[in-house]
Amino acid sequence: MTNLIKQAAVDLVKGKYAIALTGAGISTESGIPDFRGPSGVWTRDPEAERRAYRVYAQFQEDPKRYWIDRLTIPSLLGNLDQYAPNPGHLALAEMEKMGILKWVITQNVDGLHQKAGSRRVLDYHGNAFKLRCVSCGSRFESGDFDLKKIMGEDRLPPLCSGCGGVLKSDVVHFHEPIPSDVAEQSLEEASRCDVALICGTSAVVYPFARLPQVAKQRPPGSKSVIIEINAEPTPLTERGISDYLLQGKTGEMLPKILEEVKGLKGIKK
Ligand code: NAD
After folding, report:
1. Is the minimum distance from the CB of 232 to ligand 1 under 6 angstroms?
2. How is the beta sheet containing 167-169 ordered, strand by strand?
3. Total-model pTM
4. Where does residue 238 rank: exposed (0-12), middle (13-18), buried (19+ CB within 10 A)?
């Protein structure tokens, strides 16, 4: 394992344009459960998964009901305000500050990369702390809305101050298209990168799972390195999309890689 940690650091330092692709696994060490890991939300409660697949249709049919449910039924991931970034998030934020990492593209909705100090973050599946207008695509901080008050005054769903369209949570539900701005930029970054650090994802949710494949395909004469850090092997490992797997916890592996990177760059520990 030590050799692979060193290899990852060498690949990151040699690379010209590294990105990280993260999933729920990077946040489990902050206390937020994943969906498909051994103690994931879906693994423990398959009915919750079936319910999640119906949420977007419910929003389309009855946005008021959707909002009442969101404001009265506890979230599967708990109150996301209470969680703090872990050493995995912090290591990625530091790699960005060092100029090594250009973007983090995350499936997570928890905002922990931003809390850790990462500035270039693409929230592929949205952000639980934001609302998005389904008509014009504008995003708003959810803290700017007193949603409980709006519910008490029977004014749900909240409306966009720009165009008057209906607002939903920015979180992308199953069967909902990825917002085009984020989808396009993520595809661009994946096509451009020469190193992709895949962290804590089962890599089975599409279209996100296409991004490592896009990162792998390079024009003739150029090569990219796909580094996977996961608790267990995934389809990326099995299909040879990743060049190598560092099997273990992102909260342990990423800080070790960062230390090696600092050593290679001659930065004092
Ligand atoms: P997933 O639940 O499908 O898979 C998580 C993977 O990470 C599993 O393979 C698991 O073995 C691995 N893992 C768990 N802890 C790890 C650790 N400490 N270090 C390394 N690997 C670890 O998650 P996914 O692939 O991100 O996709 C699920 C969907 O669920 C995504 O759309 C995401 O938006 C959503 N989700 C988000 C959060 C969040 O925002 N924190 C939490 C749960 C689910």
Report:
1. yes
2. 139-141, 130-133, 167-169
3. 0.96
4. exposed
The answer, yes or no, to whether any atom of ligand 1 lies below 6 A from the CB of 30, is no
Ligand 1 close to Cβ of residue 115 (< 6 A): no
Q: What is the pLDDT of residues 161-203, one digit of tens each?
A: 999 999 999 999 999 999 999 999 999 999 999 999 999 998 8
What is residue 230's three-state secondary structure?
strand
Q: What is the Cα–Cα distance from 48 to 52, expressed in whole angstroms? A: 6
CA of 184 to the centre of ligand 1 (A): 23
Average pLDDT value over all residues in the chain: 95
Determine which residue's CA is closest to atom 16 belonging to ligand 1: 25
Residues involved in catalysis: 125
CA of 32 to the centre of ligand 1 (A): 9
Q: Domains of the chain, with CATH numbers?
A: 1-32+84-126+178-269 (3.40.50.1220), 33-76+129-170 (3.30.1600)
The per-residue pLDDT for range 43-101, each reduced to its tens digit, is 988 888 898 899 999 999 999 999 999 999 988 888 899 999 999 999 999 999 999 99
